[in-house]
Structure formats: C-alpha cells, structure tokens
C-alpha cells in the first residue's frame, strides 16, 4: 500500500511561551522552538506499521517554508521512505482550503492508496483531511483511532461522543484523519536523523503543481491575534507543606467539596 | 432579508443537543447585530417531537428535514441534505455546535458550499458590519479573530462558550418542512458497528458539581487510584486529560477536553495536568480551579485559581488524611 502522510511544522507549545507581537499581526517567532504537530507523529507511525505489515511505501509531505524540511527529515528518520516539500510564498497566508488545494495537487501528481492527516494541528481547525477528501471526491473518515487493513478497503474506528467508537468500512483509496492514542509513535534519536540527513527531498512550487495564486486564495483571514484575559493566574500556596495542605483543605471545603 | 441558519444536532434519543442550543444562541447574536433572520434547521428521521420542541425557542423559523435516509449521521447524505437546504434558503451564516459530528461534517460542507470555515469558536466580535470569529490557537495561549468569506460563512462553536438559548413562554415559532432528494450513490463510508465502550461516565462528568482529574503527570494507572479516593471523598466525579486515556491508564469516557466531556463544575481539581488547549477547552468554565503539579511553570497554573507546586504523591495522601480528620 502506498501511503501519503501530510505533516506540519508547528511552534512547540510545550517548549515555548507563545506571545503576540506588538501589533497583533503575528506571534513572536524569534527563539520559538518548533516541532512536528503531535497528531502527525501518530499518523506517520500508523503508516509505517501498515507498510511493514502489508508492504508498500510511506511518503511524507508538508506545505511550508524551507524550515519544514527538518520536520520531513524527522518523519523519515521514523521510517517514512520519501519526503516532498511544497514551498511557495502563495501558500504563506492561505487558509485550510488553500493548503488542501496544494495537497490535492500533490496527491494527483502521485499515486496513493491511502492519505493520512493528523486530526488537528496548531490552529485547531481540523479541516484539512475533510477538505482534501471532498476536493478529490474520495471517502473520508475523521478522528480515526483504529485501522484494520482489508482487501481493497479498511475497517476504521472513529472516535465518537461519550468515549465510544464507531467502526466503519471504507474503500480504498481514501483519506483518514488520525487521532492521538491510535499507537505509540516511536522515538527518534539523533542517530536516526543523521542517517537521513543527506537524502534529497524534492521541493515543489505552486507552478510545479499546476497551481496559481488564485488557487491559494484564502476564504478565512486572520485579522488579529490577542492574548486572552486570564486574570491573575493561580495563587500558588506558600509556606511549609503542612501549611499548604491546610490551606488547600480549607479551599476544597469552602468551594463545595465536603459539606 | 438575510438569514443566519443554525444546524441542530440530535442525540440518540432524538433530543436537541445542548451544544446546538448554544449555537442557536450564537446565531441569534449574529442575526441581531446584522439585522438578519434566525432560522433553526433540524434534520433526521422521525423527528417531529424534536422539531416541535424547537418552536419554543427564539427563532424566526424552524426548518425541518424529516427523511428516513437521515436516521443516523452518514457524512455524504448529511452533506447533501445541508447543501440542498442552503441552495434554497441561501443563508448568510451557517452555525453549529462543535461536536464529533460537526468535526466531520463542517469541512465537507465548506467544500460543498465553497465557504470559509472557522471551527471551535468561543466568541464573536463585530467590526463595521463584519463578524469576526474568535478562537483559541497555539494551545490556548493566544486568541485569534478571523473574518470569513462565503455564502454562507461557516462556523462551529465550542461547547459552553455561549449560554444555551432558552425556551420562551408561549413562543411558537413557525415551522416549515423542506423536501430534499438524496442520492445514495454518493455514499462512500459505511458505519458497520458501534462499540459502546463508554460507560455513561461522560454524562456523569458533565453534570458533576465537583470534578477531580488526572493527567500524564500521574505517571501511571496507579495514580488514578488515589485520585479516585479524593474524588469519592469530595463527592465528585473522576476525570482525566487526554494522554492517560490514550495510554490506557483510565477508560476513554473519563476524558475531559475538547474531544471528551466539556465540564463547568463549581470545583475542578487538576492533578498532574499540564494544561493543553485540548484539556483547558473542556474545563475552563469551572468556577474554581485548583491545580496540583510539580512543574511550577505548567500552563495550568495560568488558568487555575489556586495552585500547589508539588508532587501529588506527597500532597494527596496528606489532603486525604486532613479531610478524613475534619469529617
């Protein structure tokens, strides 16, 4: 099975305090540590496991700038066979639809049985998978937390409300968006990354994909960023451990615990 | 006169979901600000009662699509149905609650209707006749306001970010049935089985006055044992952030967060939870938040009211002992 996994380089919110710049037009990008979008690692892991079981290949693709190459290399160190970088300024300020259009062109230029995305990324939109599938008129399953490979089809588990799961039959080729918890993404060491350091990753422009600036035109435009009013933050209890515990018990009691 | 259309989602028992009534409230804000009509669209099979119940809510019109093929959510058929309704009604805005269904449906609709979509909105701003849709991004450290193009413009609203619309005494909004014709050959994904592993815990969580939740910081399933003791002692429900559910430390139905239960209890105790958007989006409406975490810079302390920077393995036994003494 030939699998394409769409991945994104995002600011690592576990490693950084994200701040807004002075005019609210962007976040402060200096000194920000980036990593692979968490959900995408689960998608790549799942793709690698499927390939190892049934044969085929795993290709990772990212729409981003040259810095996104490190993300592709990391996923190749995990075990992906090929990388493709789509780098063009027309995609710089586009929206989900623009990114989906770029991915659609990549998919059409290749031949894939299964296309995977992470269920969510830093913008929290969760719309790329659904849009790509709709554009290509392919079957789509969202929030997938289980995959069983069948003959010409997949049986996929979808997360639904109340901690429940819905099993679906979906024919190939198809698009699935992967939820965390479907597997345990493997660890990638420095050594693994070194191994793929010199592998060539093709870079595609919009023109290479037969796309124009119009194809990347956004329907959703971010007007501003701002910092939500969070109040003071927590009052961190002080004093000796005993004093802290005593204070905490008082709070628990007064706020409704123990009547 | 333009229209804001709010899509109502029904539970398994064919009752209108609270998140849909919240979306209706958000739709009402848009309609009032922009001088549009507000219509609620309810779809399904055998949904007379749900449709009738909606007439008590403040909407200019209740639109009903009662069609056997819409008995359960099927992505392609639901997309077709909404698309057809929109081609007749021509709404300026289409809003819905953020649910597992709309996470699947909304991107499909965005493409079918050639609309811009903002998912997981928590607020609205109005800027010279234009609506800005506001949502948290980058793990909730930052909010972003988006303008949207399209007819309709599409948005989903995070649970509990708007107060649900309330029925009005004596109100009886006009109701209209719409006929659509669905093409079954478009069906590409077929549900074969529902695995109901949830044990109703999620519902218990959503109604609880006190919730005690654990995160990855608990280190393993054992951590939830002492947490359960605390929850029992406080008379609260036991919850978790996403990672312990993913790791199998506790069942998935315990999950509090955007992809789990959305809670707003009087008291929320977060233990070993760092405070990702995924989790915070599901509990930030809590009246009082107490966080226990050994990492002093954990983001959870930013939204908590009280914090203890310490190891839960030392703190919890002492709390339990203290609570036991004072009882």
Automatic annotation (TrEMBL), chain A:
Domain Electron transfer flavoprotein alpha/beta-subunit N-terminal: 24-213
Source species, domain of life: Bacteria
Record carries keyword Aminoacyl-tRNA synthetase: no
A GO molecular-function annotation: electron transfer activity
Record Pfam families: ETF
SMART domains: ETF
Key word Electron transport present: yes
Record key words, sorted: Electron transport, Transport
PANTHER family, alphabetized: ELECTRON TRANSFER FLAVOPROTEIN BETA-SUBUNIT
Protein name from the UniProt record: Electron transfer flavoprotein beta subunit
Organism: Desulfatibacillum alkenivorans DSM 16219
Automatic annotation (TrEMBL), chain B:
MF term (GO), any: flavin adenine dinucleotide binding
Residue ranges occupied by any Electron transfer flavoprotein alpha/beta-subunit N-terminal domain in the UniProt entry: 4-191
Cofactor: FAD
Keyword annotations of the record: Electron transport, FAD, Flavoprotein, Transport
Any single biological process term in GO: fatty acid beta-oxidation using acyl-CoA dehydrogenase
Family according to the record: Belongs to the ETF alpha-subunit/FixB family.
Protein name: Electron transfer flavoprotein alpha subunit apoprotein
Taxonomic placement: Bacteria, Pseudomonadati, Thermodesulfobacteriota, Desulfobacteria, Desulfobacterales
């Amino acid at each position: 099975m030939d699998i394409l996994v769409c991945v994104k380089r995002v600011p690592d919110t576990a490693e950084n305090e994200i701040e807004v710049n002075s005019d609210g037009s962007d976040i402060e990008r200096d000194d920000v540590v980036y990593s692979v979008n968490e959900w995408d690692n689960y998608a790549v892991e799942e793709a690698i496991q499927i390939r190892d079981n049934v044969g085929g290949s795993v290709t990772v693709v990212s729409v981003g700038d040259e810095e996104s190459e490190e993300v592709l290399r990391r996923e190749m160190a995990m075990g992906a066979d090929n990388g493709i970088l789509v780098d063009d300024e027309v995609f710089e300020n586009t929206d989900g639809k623009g990114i989906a259009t770029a991915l659609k062109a990549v998919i059409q230029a290749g031949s894939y049985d299964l296309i995977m995305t992470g269920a969510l990324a830093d913008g929290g939109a969760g719309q790329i998978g659904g849009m790509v599938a709709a554009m290509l008129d392919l079957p789509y399953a969202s929030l997938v937390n289980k995959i069983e490979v069948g003959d010409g089809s997949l049986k996929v588990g979808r997360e639904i409300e109340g901690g429940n799961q819905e099993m679906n039959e979906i024919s190939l080729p198809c698009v699935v968006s992967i939820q965390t918890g479907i597997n345990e993404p493997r660890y990638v060491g420095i050594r693994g990354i070194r191994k793929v350091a010199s592998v060539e990753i093709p870079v595609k422009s919009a023109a290479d994909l037969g796309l124009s600036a119009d194809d990347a035109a956004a329907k959703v435009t971010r007007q501003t960023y701002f910092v939500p009013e969070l109040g003071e933050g927590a009052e961190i209890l002080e004093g000796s451990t005993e004093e802290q515990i005593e204070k905490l018990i008082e709070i628990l009691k007064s706020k409704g615990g123990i009547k | 006169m333009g229209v804001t259309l709010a899509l109502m989602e029904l539970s398994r028992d064919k009752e209108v979901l609270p998140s849909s009534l919240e979306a209706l409230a958000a739709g009402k804000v848009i309609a009032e600000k922009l001088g549009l009509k507000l219509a609620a669209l309810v779809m399904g099979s055998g949904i007379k009662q749900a449709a009738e119940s909606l007439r008590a809510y403040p909407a200019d019109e209740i639109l009903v699509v009662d069609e056997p093929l819409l008995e359960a959510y099927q992505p392609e058929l639901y997309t077709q149905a909404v698309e057809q309704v929109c081609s007749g009604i021509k709404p300026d805005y289409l809003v819905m609650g953020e649910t597992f269904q709309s996470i699947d449906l909304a991107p499909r609709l965005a493409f079918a209707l050639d609309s811009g979509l903002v998912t997981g909105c928590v607020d609205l701003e109005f800027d010279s006749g234009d609506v800005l849709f506001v949502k948290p991004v980058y793990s909730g450290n930052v909010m972003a306001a988006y303008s949207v193009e399209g007819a309709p413009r599409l948005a989903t609203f995070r649970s509990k970010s708007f107060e649900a619309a309330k029925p009005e005494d004596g109100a009886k909004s006009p109701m209209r049935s719409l006929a659509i014709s669905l093409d079954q050959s478009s069906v590409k994904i077929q549900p074969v089985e529902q695995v109901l592993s949830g044990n109703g815990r999620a519902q218990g969580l959503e109604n609880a006055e006190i919730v005690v939740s654990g995160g990855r910081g608990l280190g393993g399933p054992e951590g939830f044992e002492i947490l359960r003791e605390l929850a029992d002692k406080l008379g609260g429900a036991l919850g978790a952030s996403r990672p312990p559910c993913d790791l199998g430390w506790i069942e998935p139905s315990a999950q509090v967060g955007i992809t789990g239960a959305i809670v707003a209890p009087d008291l929320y105790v977060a233990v070993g939870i760092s405070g990702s958007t995924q989790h915070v989006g599901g509990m930030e409406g809590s009246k009082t938040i107490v966080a226990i975490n050994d990492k002093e810079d954990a983001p959870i302390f930013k939204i908590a009211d009280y914090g203890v920077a310490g190891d839960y393995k030392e703190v919890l036994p002492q709390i339990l002992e203290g609570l036991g003494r004072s009882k």
